[in-house]
Amino acid sequence: THLEQALRNAIITDAVEVYFQPIVRLQDGAVLGFEALARWIDHDLGFVSPSVFVPLAEERGFIDALSEVLLSKAAEAALSWPQELFLSFNLSSAQLMDPGTSETILSTLARAGLGPHRLELEITETAVMTSADTAQRIIADLRQHGVKISLDDFGTGQSSLGRLRDFTFDKVKIDRAFVSQITTDRASEHIVKAIVAMCDGLELQVVAEGIETHEDAEKLKALGCGMGQGYYYGKPADTAATHTYLRSRY
Ligand code: G
Ligand code: G
Ligand code: MN
Ligand code: NA
């Protein structure tokens, strides 16, 4: 298709970009790291969402090539941040079915010169379900090298609690579907409260996604949630704007 060809071409010509969104400590707003988010603006097609082009690359069998370009760019940017800041990067489900993934990631990091302990990989419940054994091995291998694993979009997949028991994660990201209604919907508040308590018990870090207002942030702090992310703290921004953002804070 035209879209597929345009995307393949964008990968080759280095036209796919990475933006960064801050992840902060809720207590004091300190930046702890950034999530990398792919961005592509095509000459003819204009803005194409990663929720369109990532699944396309998966379907057409070139998610590896796309992801390698993105991770390589993201790692290069992270090199110029303060050393204590982590880089969080999304892995797609197809990558968790491919036994070569850990090797690809580690060698991309090595080439960029970014230590594996600075990388966190965001994976979804659906992704670990589809190919559990392979996913398990990839996760174990990467963690052994110091890479951390976050369970993304928590609460929206299936058998969430079973995943937490059977897999080893470092962090849970509460889906914005719960966070966005936390000040208006009692059920959402109770669910978030329960997730935070459960993660404390399991010694998992917790990030609330999609924080858009001061009121959201205050409520999450009161519920004991450790970290947050969302437009209230910062929208995804390009490498240069991310530098400026960091310079204003350090
Ligand atoms: O940034 P935005 O909210 O538009 O992202 C839409 C979706 O695309 C999200 O589910 C996000 O996780 C996914 N996404 C963004 N960047 C990447 C990437 O680099 N790799 C993968 N696999 N998914 C990404
Ligand atoms: O699936 P994942 O959690 O990786 O996707 C992150 C998506 O959420 C990105 O597309 C990002 O642009 C979007 N996002 C980040 N912060 C906010 C927010 O505060 N509100 C909304 N509506 N979307 C957000
Ligand atoms: Mn994510
Ligand atoms: Na998410």
TrEMBL record:
Source domain of life: Bacteria
Domain EAL: 1-250
Protein name per the record: Diguanylate cyclase (GGDEF)-like protein
Organism: Pseudorhizobium tarimense
